[in-house]
Amino acid sequence: MSYFGEFKINGNELVATETGAAIPITPSFAAEVLRIASFVWLVNAVRATRVVRGREPRARISFFPKKPRSYYAIWPVCQLADVKITDDPTEADLHFYFEDREFLTAQRDAPSERPAFNIGCFDIRKSVVARIFEETFGYSLAIDPRTHDGLAVEKSEGNGKHDGRIVECPIAVPARDRVYQRLVDNTFDGRDHIDIRTPIVGGKIPFVYIKRRGRDVRFSNDNHRVDLADTNTLLSKREQEQIIDFARAMRLDFGGLDVLRDRNDGRIYIVDANKTDMGPPSALSAQNKLKAMRGLADAFAMMVDDTLKR
């Protein structure tokens, strides 16, 4: 059964028709939908007060080939940054490449010669992320499952699949449609698995999310707690520079990275890059959701202003 053309119900999961990403329909699902709707209402209320006060948009932006729905992070960011989303690209000061796909054979052309964000970020497959990570950081996430001795992670190339599983290597005949990576012990205390979700906005990291998951759901997006944290408390200056270099190499102007810190060697590993980030994370409080989106909006407004000045 289709759901607004973008989702379909498959058993006990809501599946995105374009990417195949699945959201379990659990007893808490309805409550989560209500939380999203409440947050969208709050953002609209904030935006409405600015309109009433006569604030003009700082810029007009068009998205191509699709316009983001309100559950994508860029939607509330535009509202809070006073950037008006327009359906007519001829009215736009800026464009934004927005397509919830991990791979195209070549980048899409922007509707006009005006600046376009994320225009070159058309391949975010896991193997590409691992290759760019190694080129940027100088050490490897990817492993050869035929020669690696010990445990590793096997996962699909696709974005948002959350289908990672631990396998024993060496493997005589690796699966062709899977990638193999080192198993990162991303626990602080040996129990909770920590994902340092790192937003990227115009070559800056405004803050990070600390996502906590239990061992049984370490490869899912089922966080039992999410906190906001200052970037400097989780990442060194050198690590921040390398992350920004990575985002630049991926041509990612706005999006999110999944960063893991290995408990054994202390180094960080970028395991995923997302150019169509959903957000804010559901486990955040309403107050912190708005705080996070304001932080992203401030950074986005600065990126828009700087781009239009050039």
Could you characterize the architecture of this molecule?
Helix 2 crosses helix 6 (286-309) and helix 3 (126-137) crosses helix 5 (237-250). The chain has helices spanning 29-52, 74-80, 126-137, 231-234, 237-250, 286-309, and strands at 2-3, 7-10, 13-16, 22-24, 59-65, 83-85, 94-98, 116-117, 150-156, 165-169, 178-182, 193-201, 208-213, 225-229, 254-261, 268-274. The protein folds into 2 domains: 25-122, no CATH class; 126-274, ATP-grasp fold, B domain (D-amino Acid Aminotransferase, Chain A, domain 1). 32% of the residues are buried. With 310 residues, the chain is of the alpha+beta class. It has 6 helices and 16 strands. It has a 5-stranded antiparallel sheet with strand order 14-13-12-15-16. Strands 1-2-3-4 form a 4-stranded antiparallel sheet, with no helix packed on it. A 4-stranded parallel sheet has the order 6-5-7-8.
Summarize the structure.
With 310 residues, the chain is of the alpha+beta class.
**Fourth-level CATH superfamily of the largest domain:** ATP-grasp fold, B domain
- Helix/sheet category: alpha+beta
State Rg. Answer: 20 Å
| Number of helical elements | 6
Oligomer: single chain
- Tell me which CATH architecture of the largest domain applies here: 2-Layer Sandwich
N-to-C series of helices and strands: EEEEHEHEEEHEEEEEEHHEEH
- What portion of the residues fall into strands of 2 or more residues? 25-35%
Mean pLDDT: 88
Percent range of helical residues: 25-40%
Query: What is the count of structural domains?
Result: 2
Could you tell me how far the N terminus lies from the C terminus, measured between alpha carbons in angstroms? Answer: 48 Å
Reading off the top of the CATH hierarchy, the class of the largest domain is best stated as Alpha Beta
Shape: globular
The major pleated sheet works out as:
5 strands, antiparallel
At CATH level 3, the topology of the largest domain is D-amino Acid Aminotransferase, Chain A, domain 1
- Total beta strand runs: 16
